[in-house]
Amino acid sequence: MLNLVSDSSCDLISGELNSPYARLTVAPMCLHVGGQDYLDTPELDIPALLSKLAHHRSSSACPSPAAYAEAFEQGEETVCVTISSQLSGSYNAAMAARDLVLAEHPEKKIFVLDSRATSGAMILLLRKAAELVEQGLPFEDLCAELQVCQKNTRLCFTLEHFDNLVNNGRMPPLAGTLLQTLGIRIVAEATAEGTIRVAKKARGEAHTARAIAQLMSDAKDCTGSHVIITHCQNPAGAERLRSVIEAQTAELNQPNPEKEALQHELADVQRKAKNLLSALENGTAGAMLTNRLAELEQRADTLSYQLSSLESEPKFPVFSKEEVLYLLEQFLIAPSEKTKAYRRRLIDTFVSKIEVSNTELTIYFNIAEEDCGKMKKTPQSNQPEGCSTEKQMVRVARIELTAS
């Protein structure tokens, strides 16, 4: 039986992946918040912890080498997956524990894998290890396969609240307040080295879900891949993200007659060119066929360019019926409830920005004019005034200011 070990950043609990072929032990991390220690175990009160995190500085501690050593001693063959070594000392603690256990039990086999990520990426790696041992793969081959899998695994995440970053000095308070007020969310991803970088910024949950789905699509072809969605007290947001990913996958898998026709013609042209080239090499073709070969090669270049242009054509976001209804429902309230906060929400939703000068007030609305939709493939210089396609199309209203 394979002995699987991980730290608690994997978002699993001990025994969760148990099977006749593998068992999982999770070494808990420790959170220090407001002078108190919280062990990351299934008994941890998450809502109470989040409430305290909003008002106090915090830090974390990885599992000790002793905790890892105790877990490693439970099996003859152990695979340990840790949070990125660039984010925590968990990997180093596990490596120290490995050396301690092997010094006393040199017959044991222990492999420690730096996930260079956390959470869902670690779940994928642990599940892969359980699948491989069930297939009867030898331990050394299993470890090599896990290293390949780690390099092909991607992680992205988003933050809705920035209290923890502000409290710990990682974000200026003013920036945190502005982001929170404007409903802007940061979408970040793990790099190949295991660090974190900001990849996108989005406003609102629906836009954030689409930004994450697009980030996934840009990173790799996710067709047939397993996707893990984890969340912190936000099941509705996780379900929304799943719907967006499924919708995008279905759209990408739809047949494209134009693309298929180009591919078929390109294959036919390449086949003919190959036959002519063989004839020329054998000395059985004349000048006429040489000219024909040049024509076919030129046609192949044209078709290849058309295919690449078709595949790189930007895809504009498509709102589902559920997303439109969700947006409209946010404004279905009684007249008596139209408070200042309600008016602010209207402005935040439908107004992109406002510019004030000495002579005029310019309001940019998040509503595309009909002409802008028709012009989205027109060069920027040829578009009518008031139409922008850089990020989203807006309608511009200008009001002249005069002294009374």
Which structural traits does this protein have?
4-stranded parallel sheet, alpha/beta, 3-stranded antiparallel sheet, 404 residues
Report on the structure:
The structure is a single chain. The chain has 404 residues and is an alpha/beta fold. Helices cover 45% and strands 18% of the residues. It has a four-stranded parallel beta sheet, with helices on both faces. A hairpin with a 2-residue loop joins strand 3 and strand 4 (36-39). Helix 8 (205-219) packs across helix 9 (235-252) and helix 10 (257-281) packs antiparallel against helix 11. The longest helix has 25 residues, at 257-281. The radius of gyration is 28 Å and the shape is flat. Mean pLDDT is 82; it is low at 369-394.
Architecture blueprint of SSEs:
Blueprint: E1 2-7, E2 22-27, E3 30-33, E4 36-39, H1 46-53, E5 58-61, H2 65-72, E6 77-82, H3 90-104, E7 109-114, H4 120-134, H5 139-151, E8 156-159, H6 163-167, H7 173-182, E9 184-190, E10 196-203, H8 205-219, H9 235-252, H10 257-281, H11 287-311, H12 321-329, H13 340-350, E11 351-356, E12 360-365, H14 370-374, E13 395-400
Parallel strand pairs: 1-2, 1-6, 6-7
Antiparallel strand pairs: 3-4, 3-5, 8-9, 9-10, 11-12, 12-13
